[in-house]
Every structure is written in structure tokens, then in C-alpha cells.
Design a protein that fits this description.
Distance between the termini: 45 Å
Largest sheet: 5 strands, mixed
Radius of gyration: 20 Å
Structural class: alpha/beta
Strand order of the largest sheet: 3-2-1-4-5
Strand content: 15-25%
Mean pLDDT: 89
Low-confidence stretches: none
Shape: globular
Length: 221
Amino acid sequence: MRHHLHTLGYAVIRPVLSMSSPDERYAEKGEKLRAHQAVAKRGEVVLLFDDEMDLHVLPSIAGCWTKRGSQRKVPMPGKNQKCYSFGAVNTVTGAVTRLIRERKNSESFCALVEAIVAAYCPGECRKGTKMVRVVDNFIIHRSKATRKLLGQYADCLEGCERPTYAPQRNVMELRWKHLQRKVTHNYLFASVAALVAAVEQFSAELDNQPATVLSVIGCAE
């Protein structure tokens, strides 16, 4: 049977979990997002996708080239430690505004918002192209502290809701996956500090490769 299935083009492939979005406004949000993408390509707004990622000392595991008959063993830490990476990617230029914090909370997310404003609309008068930030409904994106800060920047920042349970709509997540493939998969770092240093070094190098970033996030021309 196994041989017959192979001749028919079948193979044993690990399935992936999938879920249809229950968002009743999925189509509406998707259409609005496409409209923002078109306007951003014309240079009328800066379109940014915001997201967070957990950085674990416990290695992330992925398939890799291994000699037949053997299995690579990745060491584990005695105790897992982690911190959090926050980032926003520009879908036109490939630029990424990013920071790493010890906690994934409103204070850390607000620090990212401040960094975005400083990067695109510096100065008290905040002159610059209006920004549209695509975010999900995670609690720190809509907390009281976050809403208060966003209110202060309402003249230059606009929010755009991403459809719920639709990670494929978040291109910043593709940037995180690229980092994991290149830095964290199958490797045990000696400490959180060593992990952060490796992530920062890789990210700094990638900052000088905007074409690569746009390709990774699926926004290359």
C-alpha cells in the first residue's frame, strides 16, 4: 500500500492546524486593509503592521538536514527564560521599528508607539506623512493606557483592525518567522542576554537589507 501511494504522488506530510476566522466583519476589515495598502503604495500614508513575539531561551524546534539514521538533539535549558520583541514593519520601504522589553504589557507597547512616532513624525509639530497601524485586538493594543497615548497622537496615527484569527493578514509575523529560522531554531543560547544580543545583531543587519525584508513579508514588487 505504501509503495502504491508513493506512485500516486502521496507522501507522509505533517498537517498544520487551521481555523476559519469567526470575525463577522472579516470581509469589511479585509477590504479596508486593501484600500490602505493601495494608498500606501502611492505614498499618501505610511502603512505599518504592528506585532509582538516571545523570545524564549528554550529553543524553537524545526526540521533540518540530518544524516539518515540519526537524529539531532537540541539541548534544553534547566529553566526557561524569556523576553519580548515588539516591532512594526513598513510595507513599502521594508523599514522595521523595533524594541525588546522584559514584559509584554501596555507600557512596552506604548514604548513601540512612541518609537514609531519618533521615526516617522519627529518633533513637537509632528510633521510627516500620516501613519496607519494595522493591529489585532490583543488586550495591550486596546488598554486604557494605550488608548490614552494613541489619543495624543490622533493627528498623525490611525488604527486599522486586522481580522481576528487571521495571522496570514499580519506581515510582521512573517518577519518574526524569518528571524526564528535564522537565529533561534534548534539553538540553545546560554542566557537571555545572549539571545537578545543575537536577535539585535541579526535585526541590525537586516535593517540594511530592505529588499530582503519586503520579500520576506510578501510585499516586494
